[in-house]
C-alpha cells in the first residue's frame, strides 16, 4: 500500500529527531512525508532540513500561525497546509504528531489491517507515556475503540467521505463519528504500542480548558449527553474541575451560537450512537 504522512511541528526540537527517525526506519516506508514547520522559534526547522537532505521522500513546508498552542485549530491548519502538497495517489493517509516514536513495523501492520477489511476506515494503536519512574505506561483517556489524534491513519475512501479533518477542538472525535455515519469502522490494535514523549495536554494554552465543552456543543451532543460525558471525563482524569470547565464551555458556546461541526442528520446519528454506548455500559 502507498501511504502519506503529514507531521505538524511547532517548536518540537526536543522530540522531532526521534519521531522522524522512527518514520524512516519503517519496514514499509511511506511514499511521502510532509513535515509542516508551524511558526517554530527553536531548532525544529534545522532538524527537518537534516532529514530532507538525506531522504528524498521527506519534504518541508514553512507556515506562519499563532504561537498559542490551542488544541484543534492550530494543528489541523498546519496539517491542511501539508495536505495541499500531496496528490490523491495513496491508499491511506496519516496525521502524526512530532513527539511520537513508532515501532519499526507500525505502518506495515496498519496496512494489513486496512487490507483485511474494506469497512475499516480509521486504524491505530495505543499510546504509552513515561511515569516518574521511567516506566512506559498505557495512557488512553478515551474508550478503547478510539484512536488517539497523535497517530491516526485513514483510508482514502474514509478520509474523502468525512471531508477531511475539522479545524476545531474535537476534530479527533468528529472524524470517528463521521466515519461511522458514513459506514466505516474504527480499529484499534493492542499490539501497536507507540511512545508518546510529551504527556497529554502539557503544551496546551490555559484557554483550552473550555474548548472540550464547546466541542460537545458543536458536535450537537445536547445537554444530557454533555453532562454524562463531562462526569465521565472528570472521574477518569481525576480532575473535578474538568466537569465545571466542560459545562462552562458548553453553555458559552450555546450562548454565542457557535457554528456546529456537523449537520442536523449527522448530529442525530451521533446522539443515537452515544446513547447506545451509554446504555450498553450501563447494562453490561
TrEMBL record:
PANTHER family: GLYCOSYLTRANSFERASE, GLYCOSYLTRANSFERASE EPSE-RELATED
Name used for this protein in its record: Glycosyl transferase family 2
Domain Glycosyltransferase 2-like: 5-146
Keywords: Glycosyltransferase, Transferase
Any one GO molecular function term: transferase activity
Lineage: Bacteria, Pseudomonadati, Bacteroidota, Flavobacteriia, Flavobacteriales
Protein family per UniProt: Belongs to the glycosyltransferase 2 family.
Gene3D superfamilies per UniProt: Spore Coat Polysaccharide Biosynthesis Protein SpsA, Chain A
Organism: Arenibacter algicola
InterPro entries found in the cross-reference section: Glyco_trans_2-like, Glycosyltransf_2, Nucleotide-diphossugar_trans
Keyword Glycosyltransferase: yes
CDD domains reported in the protein's UniProt record: CESA_like (cd06423)
Amino acid at each position: 500500500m502507498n501511504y502519506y504522512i503529514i507531521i505538524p511541528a511547532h517548536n518540537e526540537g526536543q522530540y522531532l529527531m526521534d519521531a522522524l527517525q522512527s518514520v524512516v526506519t519503517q519496514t514499509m516506508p511511506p511514499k511521502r512525508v510532509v513535515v509542516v514547520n508551524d511558526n517554530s522559534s527553536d531548532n525544529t526547522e534545522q532538524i527537518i532540513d537534516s532529514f530532507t537532505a538525506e531522504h528524498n521522500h521527506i519534504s518541508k513546508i514553512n507556515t506562519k500561525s499563532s504561537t498559542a498552542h490551542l488544541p484543534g485549530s492550530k494543528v489541523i491548519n498546519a496539517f491542511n497546509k501539508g495536505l495541499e502538497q500531496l496528490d490523491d495517489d495513496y491508499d491511506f493517509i496519516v496525521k502524526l504528531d512530532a513527539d511520537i516514536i513508532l515501532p519499526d513495523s507500525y505502518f506495515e501492520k496498519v496496512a494489513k489491517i486496512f487490507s483485511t477489511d474494506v469497512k475499516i476506515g480509521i486504524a491505530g494503536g495505543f499510546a504509552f507515556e513515561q511515569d516518574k519512574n521511567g516506566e512506559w505506561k498505557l495512557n488512553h483517556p478515551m474508550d478503547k475503540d478510539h484512536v488517539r489524534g497523535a497517530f491516526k491513519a485513514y483510508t482514502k475512501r474514509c478520509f474523502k467521505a468525512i471531508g477531511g479533518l475539522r479545524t476545531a477542538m474535537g476534530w479527533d472525535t468528529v472524524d470517528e463519528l463521521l466515519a461511522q455515519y458514513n459506514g466505516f469502522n474504527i480499529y484499534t490494535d493492542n499490539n501497536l504500542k507507540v511512545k508518546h514523549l510529551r504527556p497529554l495536554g502539557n503544551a496546551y494554552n490555559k484557554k483550552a480548558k473550555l474548548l472540550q465543552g464547546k466541542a460537545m456543543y458543536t458536535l450537537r451532543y445536547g445537554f444530557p449527553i454533555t453532562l454524562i460525558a463531562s462526569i465521565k471525563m472528570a472521574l477518569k482524569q481525576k480532575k473535578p474541575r474538568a466537569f465545571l470547565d466542560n459545562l462552562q464551555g458548553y453553555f458559552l458556546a450555546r450562548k454565542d451560537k457557535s457554528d456546529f461541526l456537523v449537520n442536523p442528520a449527522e448530529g442525530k446519528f451521533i446522539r443515537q450512537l452515544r446513547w447506545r454506548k451509554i446504555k450498553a455500559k450501563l447494562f453490561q
